[in-house]
Amino acid sequence: MMASSYNAKEEDANHPGAANHAGVVKSKKPDNTAFKQQRLPAWQPILTAGTVLPAFFVIGLIFIPIGIGLYVTSNNIKEFEIDYTGANIDNPCYNCAKNFSWNSTAQCSCIVPFTLEQPFESNVFMYYGLSNFYQNHRRYVKSRDDSQLNGDRSALTSPSKECEPYRTGEGSPIAPCGAIANSLFNDTLQLYHIDSNGTFNEIPLVKKGIAWWTDKHVKFRNPGGNNNLTVAFQGTSKPVNWRKPVFELDPEDPENNGFINEDFIVWMRTAALPTFRKLYRIIQKKPSTTPTLPSGKYVLNVTYNYPVLSFDGRKRMILSTISWMGGKNPFLGIAYITVGSICFFLGVVLLIIHHKYDNRNNSADIPN
Amino acid sequence: METQQECACDKLVREEERHVKANARDYNESFSYADNHIKTSKYNVLTFLPINLFEQFQRVANAYFLLLLILQLIPGISSLSWFTTIVPLVLVLVITAVKDATDDFFRYKSDQQVNNRQSQVLISGSLQNEKWMKIRVGDIIKLENNQFVAADILLLSSSEPYGLCYIETAELDGETNLKVRQALTITSDFGDISKLMDFDGEVICEPPNNKLDKFTGTLHLRDSKHPLDNENLLLRGCVLRNTEWCFGMVIFAGLQTKLMQNCGRTTFKRTSIDKLMNTLVLWIFAFLICMGVVLAIGNTLWESWTDRNFQVFLPWDDFQSSAVFSGFLTFWSYIIILNTVMPISLYVSVEVLRLGHSYFINWDQRMYHSQTNTAAEARTTTLNEELGQVEYVFSDKTGTLTQNIMVFKKCSINGQTYGDVYDEFKQKMEITEKTDCVDFSFNPLYDRGFKFYDGRLVEAIKLEDPAEQDFFRLLALCHTVMPEEKSEGHLVYQAQSPDEGALVTAARNFGFVFRTRTPETITLCELGRAVTYQLLAILDFNNVRKRMSVIVRNPQGQIKLYSKGADTIIFDLLDPSNEDLMYTTSEHLNGFAGEGLRTLALAYKDLDEDYFEVWMKKFISASTVIENREDQLAVLYEEIEQGLKLLGATAIEDKLQDGVPETIASLALADIKIWVLTGDKLETAMNIGYSCHMLRDDMNEVFVISGHTLLEVQQQLRSAKEQILGLSRVSSAGHVEKAEMFADGSVYEETIIAEYALVINGHSLAHAMEPQLEHVLLDLACLCKTVICCRVTPMQKAQVVELVKGHKRAVTLAIGDGANDVSMIKTAHIGVGISGQEGMQAVLASDYSFAQFRYLRRLLLVHGRWSYFRMCNFLWYFFYKNFAFTLVHFWYGFFCGFSAQTVYDQWFITLFNIVYTSLPVLAMGLFDQDVSDQNSLHYPSLYKPGQSKTSSSTNDGSYISDQQVFAVTIATSLVIVVNVQIGLDTHYWTVVNHFFVWGSLIVYFAILFAMQSDGMFGIFTSSFPFVGTARNCLSEKSVWLVILLTSVVCVVPGMAVSFLRVELFPTLTDKGPQEQSLRRVRRTSSHRSAYAFSHQQGYGELITSGKNMKMSTASSTGSPGRTPQSSTWIENMLKRKNAVSGVSDEITGAPAKTD
């Protein structure tokens, strides 16, 4: 970089007058500090048999119990999953799936019976699952306007360009805009328990509390507060695929309507992988000792609005209890056990190698 | 600076001849010559930003990122927000700009300082103080003693007789000895202002150029022309010495001075790590393109098979008409996303590391020399890690290996040696610091710096033993030293070679004090009595004669010839009666030579008055002839120097710098080959070779190549090589084939166990460097443990370095102290200058400078090794973390429809490299030590190039469904893994490391929560969509379990592998190397002549002419030994000097230092 090797200061260095001016020649001796002399006190971990082998054994000994614990916990979690896509002819929803049309106003519903072999204790979580659904596609992910969803008025009337082609419809801005909102999952699922008498008892499904608090209270907000959404959303149009506008998502509960509708919020939190599940409802445990969902026969009543067959997608309904570690996830436990075992095994192998080669190079490590 | 240089060159092109008129500013200004203002700074306040940015974007990396930024602004492609690129880019640009600005500011300051120096200028009839920058071409300026010359000026007159003045040219060529410049006779009496005012001469001369030793021009004065040459010119950068004042006329000013014209652009040296880095970056770029292509193809396929049907929920964009086009766009999107493999901060980080390493070199107390108050200095900050890979060291001798200080060590007088110290059992004792030295206080004029340990010699003197007395009388008389007695008894000798100084000083201490000289007398103080000798003739030294003599008449009226010279020469001239003494002395001389001392034999002769009269007449007539004067004089000298009587011999130690043999031994153990390249004589060079144990008597063979023709040299080289390879029996017929067969001697190199040494002189080297022989030379040289090249010119030094550099692909280091080493220092990969003694030239050209050769050991074995080690670890880790970071995206591409969706939060991408992970890796790169400095020095074989390691990255998927949670989990795992990994890679955990590693983790979480806080979301809704994710996801226990699992899974394999490596293939660092003792070899004596006398011809004449004596006016005539026309004499001498400098730049006006 330096274009010149000439430095006028150096021309001065030998100037006998220069030294006289300063009186005593300044010593250029570098400071004797630990930092400058690179003698900072330091901890020097060295990979020796004494440190590595115990580390492997310790990792093994910690991981295997954790893994077993996780596995057992995961196994205690009860989970039930049923596919109601209707891809096959023997599926109750086959007709609904086959006859689906965007334009029809008539709703098609189907009844899917199933049996729970074991009773589900405590709170039961009800999920819907989609497969082969690319909620993580870049164009899909970015097709939303967070300002609009946060209740920003200007964004409501002129949504972000990212929302294209679901930005405007019928001449007015779409609220909520974008592909994510447009593809909101809109099947309605109802659960019935068939008791010993053969009567259908509808199981109460709680639809609040399924979204994160931060999402519901910070990230998503209705324009102009929660009262009178009809006025607030005036001048906007509903997303193309929707049957009803956003302010009618839950007309009975103003705390769950518009942008802060929890089903909507859950959907807007895009999935990382093309196969995913989203929380749909919570079945609260009963105050009595009876299980939340006793074993027996059940019926899932599906209002079939959501087409997935065109892209070979699948829809599932999942019932699951949870534990301290979340939902059923045997993989984590198995992974822990595997890693722990491998570490332990490696420890043993390395120990053998160490002993075998120990005699060969018994010279001392360099003292540091 | 560059621009200035260029514009100076432009002027040079236009200007074909320079016309300068004294005292005529108007006339001179019409040519618009440069004024004396210098500017080495590059920018000013206004131009800084545009010029600096322009320069920075010329770097490939910066330009690349600019391109990337542009790509990101295209909406169809943009997969990342613009800030992910612009934040790091701006950061990098700002850091570099700040560094450039400070550098430039310091240059500006030093320019200012120089420009504002005061100088006395003759303006309108009086001397006025002016700033340097105000001086114009044609001005007449006055210089005083010890002042810097302000511009290139023509010397007009001075305080000294004959318009002589003395200058020191240390800044220009590194020589500290004084040089003589002389004003033209016609101007030399311009001592007062009125004469100078009237001076209206015009100088017509060559245009500005960078040749320091050439100048041609003419002075037109009142219709007469006077030729001008370099001897009339004082160059900017010189210092006026021993001259009260002088006047001069400015010829070249400012940037057109020869000094500034010489400040050419220093070539930018690149290290092999630089090259490795560039290659790696290229490979990574290729890898990036490959990944992009794979993902683009994936995208095309996916779009046509899957996404076609998914359009219900995700319709195609308008422009996305075909899957192929979508793939094309995806390619660019992925280039943007995956650009994090391209290490943008790498270059900056490497710069920072190198700067840090340089500071550690500057700060190292163990490379500080307190005597000269010089600390080591890394003048270039870019070569540090190269110091860890040096294979060849090329060293200068004088001033580098030796101190250029000669010490009178021993002598042999009349068959008796003095100088050794014996204990009571007559055992020779080692002389150490503690040994008592002889007390010279009986002699009031003794030199306190002189040390001698053998008390017997003083006793002998005190007993007035005539042999001893004559011995020292000779030393006090036979020389060309000039005395300077500043105050009574405070004598300073101005010796033109350090050998002479040492001998005269020795005589002084032993009671034969050389006090004053006039052209025809020498006054000694012999044991307290003042004795004046009449100096009749000086029979000067030259390289053929290898001796000098003086003829003096002592107060008793006897005429004596005293002679000193090489033993072989003197022994031939001895009277046959001296034979016994000659044998004894010869034995002593061998002993001295065996100890690596430089020897001289001393002899005298009583001359008959009549004989001398006759000889003197012949001598005077021969002195005045013009043709063949030298030859005639030589014959006369020969005639009178016959039948000498031997007095004895002296042994002078050419003092090695401290710790040289140890350093060389330890570098040799580190497999660093040391070649000595010196301008000195073969004998001297070999002598030094022996005394620093580069040559040893137990070596199998020391090949001396000294052929004068190409054929001879070829023969010698071949036979030496064959001898080494054991192929000497091969018939001469097979020569050519053989030569070809072992053309690549490197195969054999490893198998040669025996130790050989090669000594080659300059003439032979010139032949050996011919294209057809250079391979033979190189192979032979590489088979030898030691290579010494003597009598080489600076150009040849550079050629030798070039040869090795070009053919061996090894890192070379050149170390030297003088101007003659500059070319070699510039040629080698690394140039080291010895600072603190000689001038600045070598230091200015060097990359590193320190005061003592022995610091080279610490520079290479400690700093170099650490730098290399740190840099390798740093690079490996840097690439590792970038790959780990980026490959996640590649993997994720298969799950998100190859849509170039990022896994992480955009802010994480922005900050990952520059905030979360940069400091710990920097701390490692700065502070890591695998082996302490003591051990590095103790086990030189630790110094071997490290192997490059390969990186592996492991990434797992996990089961978390929400994308933002997924992003935070992966990001957290990544930050933890990367920091744990650096923890494992760090060998030396200082406070700073702890602070940075833990700090990075804390900062990561702090920023994570801050950026995902409600507040940030409230302010910039669209930039921070991750609101609350961290809080929600990190409160999940399973997320932590996943993070723990991934961290362990990523770290354990690396740990196991490195453990296995340590166990199975231990390197020297891991296991204690076998104790390598630094061999200290005591050399037995061998029969070698060690004559050395670094003298130059011509000074005898200078003395007898009285030209250089200020007091000479008193007795300027009537002495028989002098030629009356002294001015012709000076011209002779100058002519001779020019002739010498014509042959090689090396000896230009450097009589004190033949090296």
TrEMBL record, chain A:
Membrane topology of the entry: Multi-pass membrane protein
Which GO biological-process labels does this protein carry? phospholipid translocation
Q: Which GO terms describe its cellular component?
A: apical plasma membrane; endoplasmic reticulum; Golgi apparatus; transport vesicle membrane
Subcellular localization, per the record?
Apical cell membrane; Cytoplasmic vesicle, Secretory vesicle membrane; Golgi apparatus; Membrane
The source's domain of life comes to Eukaryota
Q: Which UniProt keywords apply?
A: Cell membrane, Cytoplasmic vesicle, Disulfide bond, Glycoprotein, Golgi apparatus, Lipid transport, Membrane, Transmembrane, Transmembrane helix, Transport
Indicate the principal place this protein occupies in or around the cell: membrane
List, as start-end ranges, the regions of compositional bias called Polar residues. Answer: 148-160
Which residue stretches, if any, does this entry annotate as coiled coil?
A: none
Give TM regions.
Answer: 46-72, 331-353
Region named Disordered? 1-24, 144-167
Its family remark reads: Belongs to the CDC50/LEM3 family.
Q: Which PANTHER family match?
A: CELL CYCLE CONTROL PROTEIN 50, CELL CYCLE CONTROL PROTEIN 50A
Q: In its UniProt entry, what is this protein called?
A: Cell cycle control protein
Task: Give the species this sequence originates from.
Answer: Dissostichus eleginoides
TrEMBL record, chain B:
Residues at the catalytic site: D396
- Please report the record's description of how this protein sits within the membrane: Multi-pass membrane protein
| Reactions catalysed according to its record | ATP + H2O + phospholipidSide 1 = ADP + phosphate + phospholipidSide 2
* Positions in coiled-coil regions: none
Keywords (alphabetical) are: ATP-binding, Magnesium, Membrane, Metal-binding, Nucleotide-binding, Translocase, Transmembrane, Transmembrane helix, Transport
Task: Please verify whether the record's keywords include Transport.
Answer: yes
Q: Which residues form the signal peptide?
A: none
Enzyme class, spelled out = translocase
CC per GO annotation: plasma membrane; trans-Golgi network
The P-type ATPase N-terminal domain is annotated at 20-86
Annotated stretches, region: Disordered = 1110-1131
Q: Which PROSITE patterns match?
A: ATPASE_E1_E2 (PS00154)
Q: What is its EC number?
A: 7.6.2.1
Any GO BP annotation: phospholipid translocation
Keyword ATP-binding carried by entry? yes
Q: Which GO terms describe its molecular function?
A: ATP binding; ATP hydrolysis activity; flippase activity; magnesium ion binding; phospholipid transporter activity
- Subcellular location(s) of the protein: Endomembrane system; Membrane
Q: Where does ATP bind?
A: D396, K397, T398, E500, F541, K564, R598, T678, G679, D680, R791, K797, N820, D821
- This one is known as Phospholipid-transporting ATPase
Which organism does this record belong to? Dissostichus eleginoides
